[in-house]
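Handout, section 4.2: multi-component inputs.
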Amino acid sequence: MDALLFMIFAAIAVVCGVNLILQTHPISSALSLIGVMGALAALYLLLGGEFIAAAQLVVYAGAIMVLFVFVIMLLNAGTEHKTPMGKGTWAKYAGVPLLVAFLGLVAYLVQSIVPATDNVVFGEFRKGTALEIGRALFTTYLLPFELTSVLILIAILGAIVLARKEID
Amino acid sequence: MPPLPIPAAAPLSWYLTLSAVLFALGVAGFLYRRNIITVFMSIELMLNAVNLSFITFSYKLKQVDGHIFSFFVMVVAAAEAAVGLAIILTVFKNRQTLEIDELNSLKN
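Output:
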C-alpha cells in the first residue's frame, strides 16, 4: 500500500515537473509547480513529516506560489517567444539523452549504496510532529531560528526598496 | 495477467531517486526556459527536491534535524521569492521584457 501511494504521488510529481519545463506560458508552469508541491507534501506525510507536510502546503503552495501568480498577472506575462536556435542547437538535442543517462547513473549509484532492505513504513517515524520540531527549534536551533527572523526582515525591506515606485 | 510485483513498502532509494529526478528537472528547466519567471520557478523546484532528500535522510537516521533543515530551506525560499520577484518587477519596469536572452547588457 505504501509503495502504491509512493508511486502515485511520485508519478504526479514527475509529470507535473516535466510539464513545468515543457509549458511555454508561465501560468501553466506555476500550476504545474503547485502540483509538484502538493505531491511532495503527500510524500512528506508518508515519511512521517506531518508538520513539514502542512508547512509545505501553507508556505510553498499557499504563500510563495500565490506571490508568483500575482507577479505573472501583474506583468501580464505571455507565452515565450521562439528565439532562433543558434549555439543552443547542440544542447537542445544532446541535453535530454545526457540528462536521462545521468539520472540512470544516479539511480544506479543510489540503489547500490542504500541497502534495498531499507523500507519506508508509514507510521514508523514519529518525531515529525509540531511538538518535536518546536522543541528542537527552540532549544538546539534557537540561534538559527532567531537569525531567520532577521533574514526575513531584511528580505521584506529589500523587496519594498526594490519594488517601490520611483518618486522624482 | 499476474499482479505486478509491487513491494509492500517503498525502499528508501526510491525517494532519493525521485529527489534526484526532480532536481535534474529543475536544472533542465533553469537551462532551457527563457522566461525569467519560469527560470525562477525551476529554482524553487530544485529547492523542493533537496527538501525531499532532507526528509528522507531524517527518516533513515530517526532524527528530527532533517525536518528543521527543510524548514529553514522553506524560510530562505520565501525570502528569496520575495526579493527575486521584486527584482523581476524592477527589471520589467526598466526593460519592458521578461526574456532572459534580451537582458544582455553585461554580455561581452
